[in-house]
Amino acid sequence: MMRTPLLAAALLLSGLCPLQAQTTYKMKPVAIQSRWAKEVSPQNALTAYPRPQLERGNWQNLNGLLEYAITGADEAVPYNFEGQILVPYPLESALSGVKKTLLPEQRLWYRRKIDISQAAGERTLLHFGAVDWQSKVYLNGKEVGGHTGGYTSFTIDITNAVKNGENILVLKIYDPSDRGVGPSGKQVLNPANIYYTPSSGIWQTVWLEKVPTDYISGLNFTPDIDKQQLNLTVSAPAGYTVEAIASANGKPAGKVKGKSGAPLQLKLENPTLWSPGNPFLYNLSVKLLKGNTVKDEVKSYFGMRKVSIAKDEKGVDRIFLNNKPYFNLGTLDQGFWPDGLYTAPTDEALAFDIKAIKAMGFNTIRKHIKVEPDRWYYWADKLGTLVWQDMVSPNHSLPEGAKAAFEQQCKETLAQLHNYPCVTTWVLFNEKWGQFDQQRLTEWIKRSDPSRLVNGHSGEYLYVNEKLRSPSPDAYVGADLTDVHSYPNPMNAIKMPGKARVLGEFGGIGVFIADHQWNTNTAWGYIQEKPGALKSKYAVMNQHLQLLERQGLSASIYTQPFDVEGEQNGLLTYDREVVKIPFAEIRKIHAPLNKDMGAIPAVAAQDADLTEPTSIYSAMLQEYIDGKKDPEFLRKLAMLAVQAGDKDGAALAGADYFAVMKQPYSEEDLRYVMQVTGSTRDTGFSIIRDNMEAIDKAMGARQSAVKMMNLIYQDLIAPAVPDNGANPDWAAIYAAVKPYGAPGEEIYLRAKTIYLLNKQDKAGFKTVAREYLDKYGQFVKLDEKKKIEAFMN
Questions:
Q1: pLDDT category, 660, cuts 50, 70, 90?
Q2: Residue 57: alpha-carbon gap to chain centroid
Q3: Terminus of the chain with fewer CB atoms < 10 Å: N or C?
Q4: Which residues sit opposite 251 in a β-bridge?
């Protein structure tokens, strides 16, 4: 019998909606995966306590299999859900077991049963580590709360909606990724080069916690090494006493007692200071007291450290750690995984990234345009690394509401990460992405957290191949640092009184490693090197850093520790399996600038094969000529041919492989076709055209159309429009692309619109631009759409 949406909603409200039986979980196919992916199951999905800075024993992990459904924006809660998803892995990830793209006009739903036993005088809190982007939360049919913002945690008190026994939890998620007003980082619906696959929905741990009626809801502490004290405030209801006890190596180290909500000073005698070389942490126990009765108790930890700008013995403004000059030797970590996207497969994997960066000899991580789960910062504290924390950039075109959304996300980020000693620097904007009110916001962050440095704009001065991309007056107003990005070679930032000079990004050397690539069509980097040449090139760059340090440079951030999707400029591959310069050798390169390495974590990865890649391909090509034609060999040969730049070889091997493929094509086959097809003339192009729906289901929305458009442009449009001074025959171009249907028409209209816009040809522009926006405007980025509409008017 057909059930109406109204009836489905009624069943949900009564708690009678049927929940699907548990099914067998299976990770979806992915081009490459990390070693930890095979350890993931519904029973052990990120089971570690998620909030080490405010820990209680009475909690319940809700990670695991939930039901999911995808509906239109205005549809009611579905009665029949589509299947199961493994939380907290995002919808688009292979580890979720779903691997689908959420479009802006769609909504994602989650549903699960929770057994709760709630005693008198007890409150039940529902915690979400992070949900991207906007959520509404229902319990037993009642809306109990929600949150807007994809990177920070939120808590809902569900006490009044809880029933003893079985409860039904439902979430409704809206995530337009880069098409919305909220910060989305480097997630875009059509990723390419420096932008990556989105992560929609729940992507950090979901958990329940039982607390007393009156309880400790938060801690805020700031170390002061000069006064040998921890400044502490305990958030709890008025009228209570709080007691905080610090311990070190199991022995008491300090104690303070006072009123809840009041500033307290916990004195420490000769405190041991935290640094990357000696990441010493104190344990902290905090009790909420009524008289002598303990009403609530939480555990935490802290580190005693100070970061500042001061003059060295030569009068040079530098970054100081614990009142001494400290060169921040860092790398740009983006926190993406091939199998989990925004979510590391396991807690061990989360820690591995920091261990690997430490093992390479870095002492600093710039966490780039992403806020990690609390446990990442715990591992950074425990293992010992400085963290420059980026704010997640606003939508670059700043649509209505984007500024407010960005500021709210910044406010929540400042609060959530305040207690972690590893975080020493806040980075407000990156390379002018969505920049606004820079002085006001820089000064606001400085007032909000005077205990840390503020980098108001990393890379507002951006040099590529020694050419300045755009001049920037007042780039460093209100900031503690002057910051320059320079690709590929390092350079110094400008000198300004009272500010330290830092190199916020440099390097980006692209090195591809066969069989460890997300996308074999690209090996993006600012420059390309063979594996055998990387070590010497990298060593020379670091020798120049030594020279720049003598001239006043205080920090450097190398791009990047790990490959990410189409970028292969990492020091390790995306799957974390191959290190391109052996750990011991890269530590030697870094040693002159990092004299505070401390204990080196034990990490495992293969050393890169330094054989000339073209030699490997040449040997395989000879095997092909001699008759080797098995399918797996043909697949690898075609991929290596693409990397070696042998289009003819790729086409030959690809055509032979396509000949043995059988319909219906597997996801693996379709991904291969997408990777090796390099022309509209290739056999693979017709396979893409005839299997668009299946490709998009496997790889994400519009992947097939975007691939086709790129190839159509490359083969049929670009040759006719070599530059803006050309006078192309647009009628002839249209006739050439028309047989390719909607992808041909879309790329034709886009190319003609951009061409006329660049020529400032307003007479011809309006008609074609209007047709382009009317038909395909939903796929146009907001900033580009604004430029088009502005010229139309």
A1: confident
A2: 30
A3: N
A4: 248
Cα–Cα nearest to 274, from 309, 321, 227: 321
List 266's β-bridge partners, or say none.
Answer: 230
Residue 736 CA to residue 714 CA, distance in Å, equals: 13
365 with 384: CB under 8 angstroms?
Answer: no
- 618-658, pLDDT tens digit by residue? 999 999 999 999 888 988 888 788 777 888 898 888 888 88
Q: Which residue carries 């690209």 as its tokens?
A: 522
The 3-state DSSP class for residue 699 equals helix
Rg of the chain over Cα atoms, rounded to whole angstroms, equals 28
- Spatial CA neighbour of 121 closest among 242, 210, 234: 210
DSSP string, 176-189: -GGGSSS--TTB-S
C-alpha distance across the termini of the chain, in Å: 53
Residue 669 to residue 517: CA distance in whole angstroms: 16
Spatial separation of the C-alpha atoms in residues 355 and 160, rounded to whole Å: 44
Please tell me the predicted confidence (pLDDT) of residue 77.
92
For residue range 14-46, what is the model confidence (pLDDT) as tens digits? 333 455 545 689 999 888 999 999 999 999 999
Residue 346 near residue 40, CB atoms below 8 Å: yes
The CA distance from 394 to 666, in Å, is 38
Q: Is the dihedral of CA 413, 415, 416, 418 positive or negative?
A: positive
Instruction: Tell me what the mean pLDDT of segment 168-182 comes to.
Output: 94
Q: What angle do CA 362, 365, 368 make, to 5 degrees?
A: 145
Cα atoms in the 13 Å half-sphere on the side-chain side of 6: 0
DSSP labels, 748-785:
HHHHHHHHHHHHT-HHHHHHHHHHHHHHHGGGS-HHHH
pLDDT value, residue 790: 83
Dihedral of the alpha carbons of 438, 440, 442, 443, in degrees to the nearest 10: 160
Nearest to 452 by CA among 609, 307, 581, 646: 307
For Cα atoms 130, 136, 141, give the angle at the middle one, nearest 5 degrees.
Answer: 130
Q: How far apart are CA 241 and CA 260, in angstroms?
A: 6
Listed in sequence order, the residues at least 6 apart from 390 whose beta carbon sits closer than 8 Å to its beta carbon are 366, 367, 368, 369, 370, 427, 430, 458
- The secondary element (H helix, E strand) that includes residue 694 is helix 692-699
CB 289 within 8 A of CB 43: no
Amino acid occupying residue 136 = K
Which parts of 446-498 are beta strand (E)?
A: 453-458, 461-464, 467-468, 481-487
Quote the tokens at residue 653. Answer: 């091997």
CA dist list (Å): 335 to 35, 341, 518: 16, 8, 15
pLDDT in tens, 215-270: 999 999 999 999 999 999 999 999 999 999 999 999 999 999 999 999 999 999 99
Tally of CB atoms within 10 A around 176: 20
Average pLDDT over residues 742-752: 93
Candidates 64, 68, 106; CA nearest to 198 is 106
Tokens 């006739």 belong to residue: 735
pLDDT for residue 22: 53
DSSP letters along 600-654, please? PPP---EEPP-S-HHHHHHHHHHHHHTT---HHHHHHHHHHHHHHT-HHHHHHHH
Rounded Cα–Cα distance for residues 424 and 415 (Å)? 14
Q: Residue 711 has what pLDDT?
A: 93
CA distance linking residue 539 with residue 582, whole number of Å: 13
Q: Residue holding tokens 């493994």? A: 86
